[in-house]
């Protein structure tokens, strides 16, 4: 059960990527990669947009003079439910047009939804990085039965039809649990599910890297100087693992954005009226024939965001591992 | 829950009676556009928008052809004894004959009950507790055997007294005096079922716990259609229902396809309501809703079985095409879409806080999710315009444009001691997009006067059993407002109101009086009404009940639901039957 | 070398032993997955305050009396300890189970994945019924993406840095960045609704009924699904090829004077394809358990649509059945891949 998608995605074939000495070279390479730089800028831009979307003082949304949850029924044709005007009611006041039926401003809703997409993706990635790195290091470092147990555990996790589980669990959520309620609870659970079930992807890579690091001289040196396992793992191994972890975390974020969007699309994401990109697409299903912009706007938002993260992640990987170019 | 699936109510009330009074039948000139062309109503091209609402469009006695239905959903069951879908109470009459049924006529006349399997309407005893029906002689099943009174008794027993057949209503179990009868699956001896007696093969006697003047309506439920005990396979019976109607089962793949063919053992001489025109009737289940619309408009299929109307894309197509629009009808359905405001959850236990909600709501915004004016008319009463006894009134006028009277709302808030508004929850069935959109609109409306709503979504499957229909849960979770809907199971004021406003119907679970209104004057009026034999006096009482309910400010109607249904030009004998708010499926034929 | 063991040689026994070991592991894995699935669907709701009565209320219709609910609790054994319930569920899969339909019992022969009380059908036949649609979708798309994805990847790798490579990789990157339901909706909107070239959603027809309709209805879903995977596979193939081409043995082969086409097809491609086929097996296994998003977007009544509808309708037996069914395909794909590896590459057997 060795050959898994990640082994190939990884490209490096499980060989360790050297850390510090490579860092500067990698940075030079990255700077030359135009696509990655564009990706990085878009990522930065989107992150800032998400952070300042609704704060402080109503944030960007208020700056543009609208609110994501206020209906504009006057701007909707009552007989067809479609926004009045060409292109879904796109105008200076409503640059992305209006939602059918209730006429909510799509620009405000896209901005508001960006918060959810990025927040969930970042937190879930963080969780899987923490769990995955720990498991990967343990498996790779100790080998033997520890490795066997963790590897089998990863197999089991990968054998779960994750999407189904996610839908079922989120769908069965009570109103209030763990001291959280409403969307706070939902976001926490979604983050937990996505993060908890995607840790094997990180763990595999970290395990492979650890396996090869373990055989290196500096580890032997540290050990011969009397360093304990903890010292070796945290002081010697982890610093050398930061780069690959960072790369694959960057590549995991877009996957997680898509995952959150898929959950929202299937109706188990955050609760309305909080906007989410996937949730907007769900509603667009009913109106794509009469209001195609309602499908295109959130679809493009997801696409651009995911693409930007992928560009950045590809660039980072190429920079750190030239063989994959 | 009864509301979404249920049958209707629907005597055409004051709103329509003006147009209908004169026509009452097959070739009337009612409606809004076609008063001049009521001669014979021959050509399809002559039919206008809403024509089938008042008269028969494309009348024809031509036999033959295959009539095709499609349904986007899957039925609970095609077993007449185990279904709660309004369309199925209409459709199942093609292969099953209840004791009573509705007259085959558009308009008000269609709400009159006529005997079907029975010879005459039920005869009630002096104490009002015994109803007797005589069966027509010589009615046969599709295998040629004769229908016996015991089969009717058995049908009632299986549909109302078993754990297995759970999908239909349980009115007979509720009203019949049957002790602790265990049902025919646990207790094979039908003699132990004392609620119904069969003194001979052609007489069925119902024994009631208390007088109930509208029992004929119950006898019109498909649950009273006979089932031979030997043929009953329980839940599986839907696979091969034994037919008494003009069509019989050829094949039925559950959840996929049902094919009906002519039943040669059906005798039209015994049947005053049905026709037997097409050679075959085919039903496809689980079809894509938009695809159904496209195929309807193209004439490839003839009827959307659910009768719930066109999807948004189809609607847009119709609205923008005058010719297509002439092939549509826009009838009221039996449903009222409303919010119930709990009288037990703070601060709504104070009537002024409830009034604040009534005044602050933008009813144009809450109408939009149903599809605007084509999807429903803005409502101000508990009963719908097509309910017998309906009287128009508006106790909480919220502006000329219905967009809310914020000044009055603030006054009411002040009177309630919450001048700056408050926080509350609104419960909604999360998988019903339209209702969620209504909740969102309500949220935005009330926000204008400082009432901050949080939307709580619950699955519709457990909605009445575990969430909004469970007062305990409602109190514990502070569900101040609940978005719901209701269409009655039989067309009478009692049928519409009793389950949702009678304080004695508040149940620990499966409760539809979610506002927990327990007003003695309402309860008394209901009792008085059901014992009043004079129809006019009785209808007057239903209007009074409506008034009382609205005075409580706990019931906030959004819209009287309407649908936009399409009739392809190759569909013949089309009219909207008032009892269902959809086409009469037993009349339809197809042009070849 | 693989295949060099003469008959009766210990090597063959090792292969058999390996296969037996892997099969046992796979069965154990399914058992674990089934327990976890069961726990998620029955334990978590209970931990969150769900009562047996609450579970039962889903099965008793709209007008349930408390007695009816109690009856359902008894009938469905919902008041048994969970371990007993799991035992009954597991026994049903292995040995079948009977359910009361009223006057008679419904047999639910093995493998009985339970009984849907929403449409009163045993889960297994429903699943089997839905499988052809999912199979049609997944297999057709798989052929499409494997052929296009791999060839684009190979060509890109060979023409590395060319305009063609850049264009292909840009499209591929876009492909993996687009949500499948969005591509699906756009293609429906353009090709079905606006241009009318292909039929719209929900027009799937079984091949046995009308092969032409079957094909027409599946073109858009195939392309939509294959686009995502082809993009992924093109990226993987290209990366794999580039890595292989840099290996020593390829250089050796070239140095030996072998023709470039021989080097590429005989050596590089073979080495690249092995891991790709592995992933292919797993992806296909995953899709056979239901292409949830694609089936939802195009309203194809397959296994994925079944489970989504079941989740929305709170039909736990169906959800549980499909989840297990999907896990079965994933484990099976894993198993086949493992065994193929063991047969092809003797080193694996020792691990």
From TrEMBL, chain B:
Signal peptide bounds: 1-21
Keyword S-adenosyl-L-methionine tagged: no
GO CC terms: ATP-binding cassette (ABC) transporter complex; periplasmic space
Record keywords: Signal
InterPro entries in the cross-refs: Peptide/Ni-bd, SBP_5, SBP_5_dom
Domain Solute-binding protein family: 112-502
Biological process according to GO: peptide transport
Pfam families in alphabetical order: SBP_bac_5
Family matches, as SUPFAM superfamilies: Periplasmic binding protein-like II
PROSITE patterns: PROKAR_LIPOPROTEIN
Molecular-function GO terms, alphabetical: peptide transmembrane transporter activity
PANTHER family in the record: ABC TRANSPORTER SUBSTRATE-BINDING PROTEIN, PERIPLASMIC BINDING COMPONENT OF ABC TRANSPORTER
Official protein name in the record: Peptide ABC transporter substrate-binding protein
Taxonomic placement: Bacteria, Bacillati, Actinomycetota, Actinomycetes, Streptosporangiales
From TrEMBL, chain C:
Bilayer topology: Multi-pass membrane protein
Main location (coarse class): membrane
Alphabetical UniProt keywords: Cell membrane, Membrane, Transmembrane, Transmembrane helix, Transport
CDD domains xrefs: TM_PBP2
GO-annotated biological processes: transmembrane transport
Gene3D superfamilies xrefs: MetI-like (1.10.3720.10)
Transmembrane spans: 23-44, 135-158, 170-193, 213-234, 276-298, 318-344
Name assigned to this protein: ABC transporter permease
Protein's organism: Streptosporangium carneum
């Amino acid at each position: 059960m060795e050959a898994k998608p990640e082994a190939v995605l990884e490209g490096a074939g499980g060989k360790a990527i050297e850390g510090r000495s490579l860092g500067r070279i990698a940075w030079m390479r990255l700077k030359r990669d135009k696509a990655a730089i564009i990706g990085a800028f878009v990522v930065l831009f989107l992150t800032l947009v998400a952070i300042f979307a609704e704060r402080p003082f109503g944030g960007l949304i208020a700056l543009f003079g609208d609110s994501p949850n206020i209906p504009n029924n006057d701007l909707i044709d009552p007989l067809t439910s479609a926004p009045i005007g060409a292109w879904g009611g796109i105008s200076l006041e409503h640059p992305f047009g209006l939602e059918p039926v209730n006429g909510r401003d799509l620009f405000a809703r896209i901005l508001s939804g960006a918060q959810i997409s990025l927040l969930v993706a970042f937190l879930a990635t963080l969780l899987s990085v923490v769990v995955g790195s720990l498991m990967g290091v343990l498996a790779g470092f100790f080998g033997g039965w520890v490795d066997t147990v963790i590897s089998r555990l990863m197999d089991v996790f990968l054998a779960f039809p994750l999407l189904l589980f996610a839908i079922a669990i989120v769908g069965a959520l009570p109103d209030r649990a763990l001291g959280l309620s409403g969307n706070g609870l939902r976001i926490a659970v979604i983050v937990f599910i996505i993060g908890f079930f995607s840790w094997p992807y990180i763990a595999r890579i970290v395990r492979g890297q650890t396996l090869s690091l373990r055989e290196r001289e500096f580890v032997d040196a540290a050990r011969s100087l009397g360093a304990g396992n903890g010292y070796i793992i945290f002081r010697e191994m982890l610093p050398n693992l930061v780069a690959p972890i960072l790369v694959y975390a960057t590549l995991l974020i877009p996957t997680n954005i898509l995952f959150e969007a898929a959950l929202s699309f299937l109706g188990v994401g955050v609760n309305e009226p909080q906007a989410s990109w996937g949730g907007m697409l769900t509603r667009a299903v009913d109106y794509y024939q009469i209001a195609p912009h309602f499908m295109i706007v959130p679809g493009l938002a997801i696409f651009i965001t995911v693409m930007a993260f992928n560009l950045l992640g590809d660039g980072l990987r190429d920079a750190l591992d030239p063989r994959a170019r | 829950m009864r509301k979404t699936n249920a049958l209707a109510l629907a005597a055409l009330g004051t709103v329509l009676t003006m147009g209908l009074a004169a026509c009452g039948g097959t070739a009337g000139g009612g409606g809004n556009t076609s008063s001049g062309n009521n001669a014979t109503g021959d050509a399809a091209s002559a039919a206008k928008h809403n024509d089938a609402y008042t008269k028969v469009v494309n009348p024809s006695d031509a036999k033959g052809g295959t009539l095709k239905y499609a349904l986007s959903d899957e039925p609970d069951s095609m077993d007449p004894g185990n279904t709660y879908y309004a369309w199925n109470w209409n459709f199942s009459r093609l292969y099953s004959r209840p004791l009573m049924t509705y007259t085959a006529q558009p308009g008000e006349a269609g709400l009159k009950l006529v005997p079907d399997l029975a010879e005459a309407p039920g005869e009630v005893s002096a104490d009002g507790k015994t109803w007797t029906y005589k069966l027509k002689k010589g009615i046969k099943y599709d295998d040629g055997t004769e229908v016996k009174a015991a089969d009717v008794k058995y049908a009632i027993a299986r549909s109302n007294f078993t754990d297995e057949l759970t999908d239909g209503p349980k009115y007979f179990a509720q009203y019949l005096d049957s002790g602790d009868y265990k049902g025919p699956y646990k207790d094979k001896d039908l003699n132990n079922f004392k609620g119904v007696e069969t003194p001979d093969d052609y007489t069925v006697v119902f024994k009631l716990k208390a007088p109930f003047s509208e029992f004929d309506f119950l006898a019109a439920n498909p649950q009273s259609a006979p089932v031979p005990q030997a043929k009953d396979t329980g839940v599986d019976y839907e696979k091969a229902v034994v037919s008494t109607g003009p069509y019989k089962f050829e094949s039925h793949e559950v959840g996929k396809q049902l094919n009906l063919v002519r039943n040669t053992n059906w005798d039209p001489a015994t049947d005053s309501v049905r026709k037997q025109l097409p050679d075959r009737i085919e039903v496809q289940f689980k079809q894509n809703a938009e695809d159904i619309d496209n195929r309807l408009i193209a004439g490839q299929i003839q009827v959307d079985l659910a009768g719930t109307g066109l999807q948004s894309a189809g609607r847009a197509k119709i609205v923008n095409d005058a010719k297509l629009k002439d092939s549509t009808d826009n009838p009221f359905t039996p449903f009222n879409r409303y919010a119930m405001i709990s009288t037990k959850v703070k601060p709504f236990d104070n009537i002024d806080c409830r009034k604040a909600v009534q005044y602050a709501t933008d009813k144009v915004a809450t109408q939009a999710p149903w599809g605007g004016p084509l999807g429903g008319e803005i409502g101000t009463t508990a009963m719908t315009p097509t309910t017998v006894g309906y009287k128009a009134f508006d106790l909480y006028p919220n502006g000329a444009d219905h967009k809310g009277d914020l000044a009055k709302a603030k006054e009411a808030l002040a009177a309630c001691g919450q001048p700056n508004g408050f926080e509350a929850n609104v419960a909604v069935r999360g998988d019903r997009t339209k209702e969620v959109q209504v909740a969102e609109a309500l949220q935005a409306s009330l926000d204008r006067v400082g009432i901050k709503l949080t939307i709580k979504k619950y699955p519709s499957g457990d909605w009445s059993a575990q969430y909004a229909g469970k007062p305990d849960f409602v109190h514990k979770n502070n569900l101040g407002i609940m978005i719901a809907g209701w269409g009655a199971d039989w067309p009478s004021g009692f049928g519409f109101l009793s389950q949702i406003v009678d304080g004695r119907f508040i149940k620990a679970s499966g409760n539809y009086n979610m506002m927990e209104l327990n007003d003695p004057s309402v309860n008394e009026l209901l009792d008085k009404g059901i014992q009043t034999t004079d129809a006019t006096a009785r209808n007057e009482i239903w209007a009074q009940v409506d008034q009382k309910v609205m005075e409580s400010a706990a019931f906030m109607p959004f819209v009287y639901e309407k649908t936009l249904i399409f009739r392809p030009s190759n569909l013949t004998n089309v009219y909207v039957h008032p009892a269902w708010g959809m086409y009469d499926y037993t009349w339809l034929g197809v042009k070849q | 070398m693989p295949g060099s063991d003469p008959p009766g040689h210990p090597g063959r026994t090792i292969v058999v032993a390996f296969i037996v070991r892997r099969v046992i592991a796979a069965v154990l894995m399914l058992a674990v997955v089934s327990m976890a699935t069961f726990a998620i669907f029955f334990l978590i709701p209970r931990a969150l305050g769900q009562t047996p009565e609450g579970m039962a209320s889903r099965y008793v219709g709209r007008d349930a009396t408390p007695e009816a609910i109690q009856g359902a609790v008894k009938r469905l054994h919902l008041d048994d300890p969970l371990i007993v319930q799991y035992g009954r569920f597991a026994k049903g899969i292995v040995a079948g189970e009977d359910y009361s339909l009223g006057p008679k019992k419904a047999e639910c022969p093995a493998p009985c994945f339970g009984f849907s009380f929403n449409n009163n059908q045993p889960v297994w036949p429903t699943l089997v019924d839905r499988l052809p649609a999912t199979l049609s979708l997944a297999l057709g798309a798989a052929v499409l993406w494997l052929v296009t994805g791999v060839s684009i990847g190979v060509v890109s790798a060979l023409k590395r840095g060319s305009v063609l490579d850049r264009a292909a990789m840009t499209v591929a990157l876009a492909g993996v960045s687009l949500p499948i339901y969005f591509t699906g909706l756009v293609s429906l909107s353009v090709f079905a609704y606006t241009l009318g070239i292909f039929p719209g959603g929900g027009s799937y027809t079984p091949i046995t009924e009308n092969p032409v309709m079957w094909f027409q209805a599946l073109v858009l879903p195939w392309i939509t699904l294959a686009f995502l995977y082809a993009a992924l596979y093109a990226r993987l193939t290209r990366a794999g090829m580039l890595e292989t081409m840099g290996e020593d043995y390829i250089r050796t082969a070239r140095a030996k004077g072998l023709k470039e086409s021989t080097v590429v097809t005989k050596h590089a491609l073979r080495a690249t394809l092995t891991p790709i086929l592995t992933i292919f097996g797993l992806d296909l296994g995953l899709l056979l358990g239901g292409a949830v998003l694609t089936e939802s977007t195009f309203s194809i009544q397959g296994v994925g649509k079944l489970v989504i509808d079941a989740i929305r309708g709170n039909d736990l037996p169906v959800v549980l059945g499909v989840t297990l069914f999907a896990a079965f395909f994933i484990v099976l794909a894993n198993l086949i891949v493992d065994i193929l590896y063991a047969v092809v590459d003797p080193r694996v057997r020792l691990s």
